[in-house]
């Protein structure tokens, strides 16, 4: 029998919803579930909603588990009885800020197996899917138990007008033969992707990280233009700006700004791209000093940390996107980069910061969707790559979206893995997420599985690992970038890169798992992947 518990805030106190507050209507005890709330004579503010739904799920069922945002680890693996939450030490470095720790914190079971927005499982009798239709308004966490699902809907802050009926939960349940097909069909009911071609490109990040200047990047443009390889985009990543948050000032290595580089890239036949993290600011930025009121504050008036980054002088903070001057400022930054500097492609990063705001008036999901809608408006016809964002909030608003963690020049980060940090920098985590989220490509946006790393120097990746990364990214990605010194490639590597022109991501039709090997059947053939914790390879 389906059970639910809805609580509201009344004069600052959380209480169960009453007949005076509202009339609640549900769908009954069918396989899916919806819940409508008709507010009474006064405006109603929701606090939390928890649903218990009978479901034929058990530990050992093959499950598609999707993480909270871009970098959050997503996997296709057998359901476990329990999971291990983020290690307490991770909070010292504010690693909890990147993930879902603040999402319905008091209602969640931190040790439960969970998936965000959608859960699909497959066993010998076929496949099933449970998915929310309301991800733009309220984030949904699906916790899997034995023969039941505990569904937590993050309705905190949602205000309902007097007398108006609003659907605040809508969980669909579908049966089928193969989970990947159910996932794509469900996703298509949520959003429609913007038109986006499959593209290749080069980005500065994994080549130089933040140590970039105009001379180096000009040299890279020349190398790429002379390579004879298709590069659609030349993207300048973090390091060009004076400081994070000070986007109209430039680092010392860019005395003439970045407009000349955009022009050079266009002359070389590439679309110029620029990295921005518009919703955050470094603690030492001129913006933070000149406009302290632009920083997001909690209910005690403290600045809201968005994370910690040693390259940005430690803690960085979220901006208050409810402040009209912040919105006007950011609109000016993006439009300047687009119309004055000449960039036609934007990688917009650390976007989750827009959902750190839990103040009354709107849910986190509503605030995040509004922020993404603003970015879409500001970028105009420029292509957008969303990164560090809850995927459902970006659906249909960006041409491309990262679907996994940052890769690295090694297979795994053992320290971050020991901390059980879902958003860790990890090549294997990135690849697993690309496989687990293959269903979003072409339905919500074009998938970005992060870059391929083919260099043989300055790397701990083995040849088999590099080949596995290349295979996953070029098979399942609609955006495939490289971030190496292309001039340093040997003939064999250059030949591999020269053949990378992507037809777009393959569609996964079937997915099974046996002996630690993922077997994928796509519309372009079969693929076997062994993506272990220690190493990985393409099986066949």
Automatic annotation (TrEMBL):
It holds the Pfam family Melibiase. InterPro entries: Aldolase_TIM, Alpha-glycosidase_related, GH, Glyco_hydro_36. Signal peptide: none annotated. The keyword Hydrolase applies. Keywords: Glycosidase, Hydrolase. One of its GO terms (molecular function) is hydrolase activity, acting on glycosyl bonds. Its EC number is 3.2.1.-. The keyword Hydrolase applies. This is Glycoside hydrolase family 36 protein. The lineage of its organism: Bacteria, Bacillati, Actinomycetota, Actinomycetes, Micromonosporales.
């Amino acid at each position: 029998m389906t059970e639910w518990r809805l609580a509201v805030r009344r004069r600052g106190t959380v209480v169960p919803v009453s007949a005076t507050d509202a009339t609640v209507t549900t769908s009954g005890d069918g396989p899916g579930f919806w819940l409508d709330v008709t507010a009474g004579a006064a405006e109603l503010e929701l606090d939390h909603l928890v649903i218990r739904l009978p479901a034929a799920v058990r530990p050992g069922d093959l499950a598609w588990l999707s993480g909270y945002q871009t970098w959050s680890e997503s996997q296709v693996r057998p359901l476990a009885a329990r999971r291990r939450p983020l290690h307490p030490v991770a909070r010292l470095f504010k690693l909890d800020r990147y993930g879902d720790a603040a999402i319905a914190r008091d209602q969640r079971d931190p040790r439960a197996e969970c998936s965000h927005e959608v859960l699909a499982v497959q066993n010998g009798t076929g496949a099933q899917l449970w998915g929310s239709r309301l991800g733009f308004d309220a984030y949904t966490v699906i916790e899997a138990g034995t023969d039941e699902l505990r569904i937590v809907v993050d309705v905190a802050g949602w205000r309902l007008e007097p007398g108006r009926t609003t659907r605040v939960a809508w969980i669909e349940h579908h049966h089928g033969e193969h989970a990947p097909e159910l996932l794509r069909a469900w996703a298509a009911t949520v959003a429609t992707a913007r038109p986006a071609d499959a593209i290749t490109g080069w980005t500065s990040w994994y080549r130089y990280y933040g140590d970039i200047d105009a001379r180096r990047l000009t040299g890279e443009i020349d190398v790429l233009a002379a390579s004879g390889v298709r590069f659609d985009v030349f993207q300048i990543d973090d390091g060009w700006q004076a400081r994070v948050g000070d986007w109209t000032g430039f680092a010392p290595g860019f005395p003439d700004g970045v407009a000349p580089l955009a022009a050079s890239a266009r002359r070389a036949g590439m679309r110029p791209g620029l990295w921005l993290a518009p919703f955050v600011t470094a603690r030492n930025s001129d913006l933070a000093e000149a406009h302290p009121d632009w920083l997001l504050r909690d209910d005690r008036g403290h600045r809201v940390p968005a994370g910690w980054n040693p390259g940005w002088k430690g803690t960085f903070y979220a901006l208050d996107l409810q402040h009209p001057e912040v919105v006007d400022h950011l609109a000016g930054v993006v439009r300047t980069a687009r119309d004055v500097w000449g960039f036609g492609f934007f990688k917009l990063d650390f976007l989750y910061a827009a959902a750190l705001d839990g103040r009354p008036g709107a849910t986190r999901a509503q605030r995040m969707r509004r922020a993404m809608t603003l970015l879409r408006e500001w970028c105009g016809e420029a292509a957008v790559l969303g990164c560090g964002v809850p995927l459902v909030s970006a659906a249909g608003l960006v041409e491309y979206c990262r679907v996994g963690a940052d890769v690295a020049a090694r297979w795994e980060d053992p320290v971050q893995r020991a901390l059980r940090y879902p958003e860790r920098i990890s090549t294997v985590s990135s690849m697993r997420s690309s496989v687990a989220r293959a269903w979003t490509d072409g339905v919500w946006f074009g998938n970005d599985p992060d870059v391929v790393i083919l260099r043989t120097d300055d790397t701990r990746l083995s040849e088999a690992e590099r080949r596995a990364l290349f295979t996953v990214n070029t098979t399942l990605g609609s955006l495939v970038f490289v971030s190496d010194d292309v001039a340093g490639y040997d003939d064999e590597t250059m030949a591999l890169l020269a053949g990378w022109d992507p037809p777009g991501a393959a569609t996964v039709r079937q997915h099974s798992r046996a002996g630690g090997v993922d077997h994928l059947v796509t519309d372009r053939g079969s693929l076997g992947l062994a993506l272990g914790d220690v190493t990985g390879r393409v099986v066949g």
